[in-house]
Request: fold
Amino acid sequence: MLFKDQLYFVRENMKKNKMRIFMTVLATAMGTAFLIVLASVAFGLHDTLIKDVLEQETVNQVQIYGKDDPNSQGITDEDIDYFQSLEHVRAVRKQSYLRQSPRVSLNGYETSPHTVAVDMGALETGGTPLEDGRYATSSDEVVVGYHFYEQLLKEDTDPEDMYDENGERIDDTLYQGAVIGETIDLTVSRLINETDTEEKTYQVTIVGVTAEPANEWQQDQTLYTTFDFYQSVSEYTGTPGGELYFQEEPMDLTFYYDEVTIQSNNLENIQTLTKTINDEGYYGYSVASELKQINMLFTIAKAGLIFIGAIAVIIASIGIFNTMTMAVTERAPDIGIMKAIGASPKTIKQIFLLESSIIGIMGATIGTLVSYLISFLVNIGLPMILEAVFEEQLPDGFQFSSIPWTLVIIAYTICLLVTLISGSRPAKKATKIDVLSALRREL
Amino acid sequence: MIEVKQLSHQFELGKKDKKTVIPVLQDVSFSVTKGEIVTLVGRSGSGKSTLLHLIGGFLPRQSGAITINGTDVSNFTEAQFAEFRLGTIGFIFQNFQLIQSMTAYQNVELPLILQGVSETARKIQALETLEKVGLKGFEHHYPSELSGGQQQRVSVARALVLNPLIILADEPTGSLDSETEEDLLHLIKELNDSLDITFLIITHDDEVAKIGHRSLMMHDGALIDQEVK
Ligand SMILES: Nc1ncnc2c1ncn2[C@@H]1O[C@H](COP(=O)(O)OP(=O)(O)OP(=O)(O)O)[C@@H](O)[C@H]1O
Ligand SMILES: [Mg+2]
Reply:
C-alpha cells in the first residue's frame, strides 16, 4: 500500500468524526503549548542572563589573584612577560593601589582620591577609553576618572552644606573649572616615628579623563598615575606602596602588581587561556567559568520544566489513546473486510499509527504556534504589569520567555513519541481483529 | 489448483475447566483442478463454511494440509496468508461485505490500493472490472444506494479486480431473488469460460449446483460423495 493512499485513508477516516478528532488535537495542542511555554521561561531568563554577562566588559578577561608559590609575594614583571607570551592574549592590564590616599588640591578645591598606578599603554589597548585628553607619558602626568571632579570640595566647606534636604548634591558646590591641563598639588605623607608625620608635595598635570563607565551605577573617581610615581612614593615613605607604617629597618621595596587582568582577543579562547594559566600555577578567574555554572544550572532547570511539561502531553495522550481505541472499535467491520481481502496486519497497524501521529503533529504544530503567541504576549505584557505594580523599570532587553528552535524540536519529539506510544496499543488491537468475527458484525 | 488433505477441525467452547470440544471437520480430502467450478452442498451446520474459511486462511489450521496453486499454505502466518490471498484468492460472501462508507468504485479499488497499484492504473482496472460485471454508470453509488443484486456484483468485481486464480463463494445467491440469481450465475459461468477462474461455491440451491462441473456433499464434517457430472 502506497504511503499516499494510507494518508488518504487516514484523512477519510478523520473526516468521519471531526469533533472527536478536534477535541483530541486540542488537548494535545494544549499539552504541547504548556510544555513549551513553561520551558520557555527557563530559556528566556537564561538568554537574558547570558546576554547580561556577555555585555560586561570583563567577560573576555582572566583576573590573576596570585601565584601558587610560597616564595612569591605577588606578580612581577617576569610573570607579566610570561602572560604576554601566551597565545590569544590581546593585552595584559596591571595595576597597583597606592596604600594611602594623597591629598589633591586643584584651584582651591581639595580631595583625597583613591590612587592607582596603571600601565598607561595597556589602558589604551585594553579597552579603557578616554573621554578627553591623552594617556600619561611620564610620572608627573596623571589621568583622572570620569567622576573625579564630583569629589572635589572647596577648601573650608562643611560637607553638610553640599547636600540639600533631599540628599541631592547642590550644583553650586561642584567644581566648575577645567580639569585637563591643570596642574595639581599631590601631597603624600610618611611616618618619621611612631606618631609624627611629614609631608611631600608633587606637582603633576592632569592630561586625560577616562570615559563614562558603561553602567549608570558605576562611579570612577580614581586618580590614575604611573608605576614610576608609585615607586617614588614607596621610596619616600620607605614602605611598599606608600603605606603609613613605621619601621626602623629598611623594608624590601620590590615592586609587585596588585591586580593583573589578561584580556583575550576573543571569547572562545577564554576558557583555554584560563586553564593554561591555572595549570601554570596562577590563581586565575574568568567570568566565562561562571558562565559554565550558569549554563549548567539552567540546563537542569530546563530539563526539569520540560519534564513537568511532558506530563501535560502525557495526560493529553490519554485522549489520543481513547480516540484511537474508539476508532478501531468503530471501524472493526471495515478492518475485517480489508483483512479478508488481503490487507496485511502491518498495513492496518501503519494506518492507525499514521492517524495518531497526524493527531500528534497537528497538536504539536498548533501548540507551537500558540506558544509563540503566548511567549510574545508575556514578553510584552509582563514587564508592563510589573512596572505598573512595582513601579520599577526592568532592564532593557529583558525577556521572560524565549522559544528557540531546539525547544520546538524537543516538544515535537516528546509529543510524537507520546502519541506513537499511546496509539500503538489501539493499532495493535486493530491488527488482532478476527476476520470472521468482524464479518459476522460481532465486534 | 486446490488440494486439501486430511483436514480436521474442531472448535472449543467454554472456560478452561468446562471445555466442550465440537468436532466440525473430520479428515476432509479433495482437490479442485484449474478452471473447475465446484459446488459444496450439505445440511446446515455440516461444516461447509468452516472448510472454506480454512482454505481462505481465516481460521488457523489445526491438522491436515492445504496446497493452493502449488503453494503449501498449511504453515503460513496470518501476514503471509494475507499477502498470498490478496493476489490469488477472491471472496464472495452471502451478505456482500462491502464497506458502507465507500462507493462501488472505491470498494472495487480497495484491493488495488492494498496491492500498491498507482492511481492511474487503478482507475482503468477498477472501471473496466465494474463494466465487466454490468455496473457501468453505478460507480459512484454507495452500497445503500444499490440493489442486492447490484451489491453482489460489486463484491464480484472486487473479488475479480486483481485477476485471482480462485474465487471462493459462500452462498453468493443466498440474499438474491431467483431472477437476480440467474444473472449472477450467468456472470460466474462467463468469467469461468473467459478467464479460466476456478470457483469453489457453497450453496443450498439446486440452480447453483447445476452450473458446477462437480459437486461435493458434506455431512457432519465429512465428504460423503463426489459426484461428477
Ligand atoms: N466460531 C465457532 N465456534 C464454535 N462453533 C462453531 C464456530 N463456527 C462454527 N461452529 C460450529 O461448527 C459447525 C459447522 O459450522 P459451519 O458454519 O461450517 O456450517 P455450515 O455448513 O456452513 O452451515 P450453514 O449451511 O448453515 O452455513 C456448526 O455446528 C457450528 O455450530
Ligand atoms: Mg455456512
Remarks:
- The interface with chain A takes residues 53, 56, 58-59, 78-79, 82-87, 89, 91, 93, 97-99, 101, 110-111, 113-116, 118, 158 of chain B (CB under 8 Å).
- The radius of gyration of chain B is 18 Å.
- Helices of chain B lie at 48-56, 78-88, 104-115, 119-132, 148-160, 178-195, 206-211.
